[in-house]
Automatic annotation (TrEMBL):
Region annotation (Disordered) ranges: 20-42
InterPro entries for the chain: Ald_DH/histidinol_DH, Ald_DH_C, Ald_DH_CS_CYS, Ald_DH_CS_GLU, Ald_DH_N, Aldehyde_DH_dom
GO molecular function: oxidoreductase activity, acting on the aldehyde or oxo group of donors, NAD or NADP as acceptor
Active site positions, chain numbering: 248
Species per Swiss-Prot/TrEMBL record: Streptomyces himalayensis subsp. aureolus
Domain Aldehyde dehydrogenase, chain residue ranges per copy: 22-468
Entry keyword annotation includes Oxidoreductase: yes
Similarity section: Belongs to the aldehyde dehydrogenase family.
Keywords attached to this entry: Oxidoreductase
Name of this chain's protein: Aldehyde dehydrogenase
Transmembrane segments: none
Length: 474
């Protein structure tokens, strides 16, 4: 039987004003799955009104009280992890390890900002005797969080936890392709004690629910994670309304391997780029740049390992039909341009994987930097490799992209790793597998967007600083 998911507004399940529900798809079988409310302007209006009504009280509560409630939300995610993973599996086909990773991280966002909230405040500014000057971190009001389909719950929590911590209330608009986990999260948050209206979720398409949300006059800040074209559109909407926004967009990130690197670990990192969420990760390091003397060896080791990855076990399907077609179009264009993959380059045509949207893990070796597969974000299990002669060429290739989200550098020479980290235009650089976690700020340079999520930076992203200066002279 098909389950229907309603909006969650003002602490209640709310049916869509137009009575319409949109089907989701199970990409492991291409069969329709659950249905979710097709949100439109009246639903958005109702959700924003609920968020606006709840906001002053939420913001006035002591930080310790908001913190306690955010911990309760984290508890609820952990307690209901299996259910959240089931909802997410049904419309993404993600493999168990990936689901577990994303769900654990979702709870951790709430834990982290619940903790930070109690320790991180404004500051006092010394202006001499007879004065008291201090800053306060104040919320914007209602925040709109518009999120994509690739890491649905995780990306929602990445934005919601710091936004709520500061005292904003939120209307979340998940992707119409993967709405169930975010809708369920909002209900769980209410059940965990978050006051009605503090966290609302409205499902629906970008056009019918996303745009009315971004243009709503009571929305004071937008956080958007998604594609460059939609990000550009929403940036113009925000500019017109003079409201700030966070843009977390795409990437075509480099993974740079020098001959003196620990090649076992570097090869493992390249393989995990293909396997992790089937390459459908904005921060995937999909351009493998390898020093010429070890290029062929690294390529053959990576190709051998990715060919051993098992569909449905080590990696899942492409989450959407349109994205599946886009990956196949990239293969066709690469073929037309004369590029021959070392492995993959096609969907599965037999066995259980052929029933779903599974693409074979793919490596194109020694590609020309001008090819589309070398320049555009593919968002599938696809690596392109390029050899380089020296450090200068490695740097030039790493920066030869309109994106700037992430970079990884592998070298036995730590100083060289740090030199590249200094010169690569990206929001975060990992040298020799250095961890990038909730504590480390995340965001793009260039076309990968602006603003920062994660870390203390995200708390400031959702707060406006107020200065209060008092003369104590009588
Ligand atoms: P998308 O831009 O198509 O959609 C993202 C969200 O925006 C969805 O909720 C969608 O309904 C909504 N939307 C679409 N059109 C809209 C409009 N006109 N007005 C308002 N909202 C609208 O992106 P996608 O295809 O769901 O996700 C894939 C993209 O997201 C990739 O480019 C990927 O790199 C990027 N991404 C970036 C990050 C990051 O943190 N930088 C993380 C994950 C994904």
């Amino acid at each position: 039987m098909t389950t229907r998911h309603d909006h969650w507004i003002g602490g209640k399940a709310v049916e869509p004003a137009n009575g319409v529900y949109l089907p989701t798809l199970d990409p492991t079988t291409r069969q329709p799955g659950d249905e979710a409310a097709a949100g439109s302007a009246p639903d958005v209006h109702r959700a924003v009104a609920a968020a606006a009504a709840a906001q002053p009280d939420w913001a006035r509560r002591p930080a310790a009280e908001r913190s306690e409630l955010l911990h309760h939300v984290a508890d609820a995610i952990e307690t209901h992890a299996e259910e959240l993973m089931d909802l997410e599996r049904a419309c993404t086909g993600k493999v168990p390890a990936q689901l577990r990773l994303e769900t654990d991280m979702s709870a951790s966002y709430f834990r982290y900002y619940a903790g930070v909230l109690r320790a991180h405040h404004g500051r006092t500014i010394d202006q001499g005797a007879g004065t008291l000057t201090y800053t306060r971190l104040e919320p914007y009001g209602v925040v709109a969080a518009i999120t994509p389909w690739n890491l649905p719950l995780n990306q929602a929590c990445r934005a919601l936890a710091p936004a709520l911590a500061v005292g904003n209330t939120v209307v979340a608009k998940p992707s119409e392709l993967t709405p169930a986990s975010t809708l369920r999260l909002a209900r769980l948050a209410t059940e965990a004690g978050l006051p009605d209206g503090v966290l609302n979720a409205v499902s629906g398409t970008g056009r019918d629910a996303g745009t009315p949300l971004a243009i709503h006059p009571a929305v004071r800040r937008v956080v958007f994670t998604g594609s460059v074209p939609v990000g550009r559109h929403l940036a113009t909407v925000a500019a017109d309304r003079l409201i700030p926004m966070t843009l977390e967009l795409g990437g075509k990130s480099p993974l740079v391997v020098f001959a003196d690197a620990d090649l076992d670990r570097a090869v493992a990192a390249a393989v995990s780029t293909v396997a992790a969420n089937t390459g459908q990760v904005c921060s995937a390091t999909t351009r493998l740049l390898v020093e010429a003397s070890v290029h062929d060896e690294v390529v053959s080791r990576v190709a051998e390992a990715v060919e051993r990855l098992r569909p449905g076990v080590d990696f899942g399907p492409i989450i959407t039909e349109a994205q599946f077609q886009k990956v196949l179009d990239h293969f066709a264009q690469a073929h037309a341009a004369g590029a021959v993959p070392v492995c993959g380059g096609a969907p599965y045509d037999s066995g259980p994987a052929a029933r779903g949207l599974y693409v074979r893990p793919t490596v194109y070796a020694g590609v020309s930097p001008g090819l589309r597969i070398a320049r555009e974000e593919i968002f599938g299990p696809v690596l392109v490799t390029m050899p380089f002669a020296d450090e200068a060429e490695a740097l030039a290739l790493a920066n030869d992209t309109e994106y700037g989200l992430v970079a990884a550098v592998w070298s036995g020479d730590a100083a060289r790793g740090l030199r590249l980290a200094e010169r690569i235009d990206a929001g975060q650089v990992a040298v020799n597998g250095g961890p990038l976690t909730i504590e480390t700020p995340f965001g793009g340079f260039k076309q990968s967007g602006y603003g920062r999520e994660k870390g203390l930076e995200a708390l400031h992203e959702y707060a406006q600083t107020k200065t209060v200066s008092v003369s104590l002279r009588s």
